[in-house]
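Ligand: adenosine monophosphate. Inputs:
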Amino acid sequence: MHVIITTAAMQAARRSLNGTTGVVLTMGYLHEGHLSLARRARAENDIVIATIFVNPAQFGPREDLAAYPRDLPRDLSLLEGVGVDIVFAPESPAEIYPDGYQTWIDLSDLPTKLEGAARPGHYRGVATVVAKLFNLTRPTRAYFGQKDAQQCVVIRRMVQDLNFDLDVVVCPTVREANGLAMSSRNTYLTPDERSRAAVIYRALSAAQAAYGQGERSAAVLRRLILDILATEPIVQTEYVSIADANTLDEIEAAIAAPALVSMVARVGKARLIDNVILA
Ligand code: AMP
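Predicted complex:
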């Protein structure tokens, strides 16, 4: 496995690659969710590139950039274990945003919804870094996790709008045994918080089950989710949304599939996101 820490070296390495290339973009502190993407990329491409970069541009001023967990040696050994060929881990943010940097990608509508509304500027940072990493790695396929549902919608739109010649592959959310979606931020949870946070997926699953049994009222499903979440007071719900899975417009009346049920809750020091699709 080849570890690259500068953009110049990444571009030079890319020029010499032949065959199909799969890329997995991460902020590191890897878990099974990330590794499931890397394994899928390994199975479907000649070359697999993983990137590790905690992107300052996608964190708000009061968010957890400084505290975000990092462990590069461990990440490298996990990626080597799943057969990744190249890891691009920029040695510093200045490698990606050098002095004088001023080009940003702003989608006009999707970032006004859901996480974009809660985290102003977040998707501007995400879209920009993903576009830059696409240019540096020029993948045939790029692998993303359904856990970050809005990110998947934003990236698909950007790929279409800016004519990136690649396939976006969305992979299922990998969960802990209790249902909690795996996240690097789960490390902020105490063992008690981690077990109580399982209520998030229990609530989302209950909505999915009710939908499966024919319930189509968004209001009823939202109430069901909120009532289940309320059974664990340390899980502080920020929002619960039932939205069109493509436009991310909130559904106020009857659900016409596919719908994205997504939510955010604060548990202790962590801000946790999760979602399910009604289809
Ligand atoms: P992150 O390091 O959090 O930026 O995530 C990097 C990639 O891994 C993104 O495409 C995420 O959606 C994906 N990912 C993170 N957690 C999970 C999970 N629990 N299951 C599947 N994919 C995930």
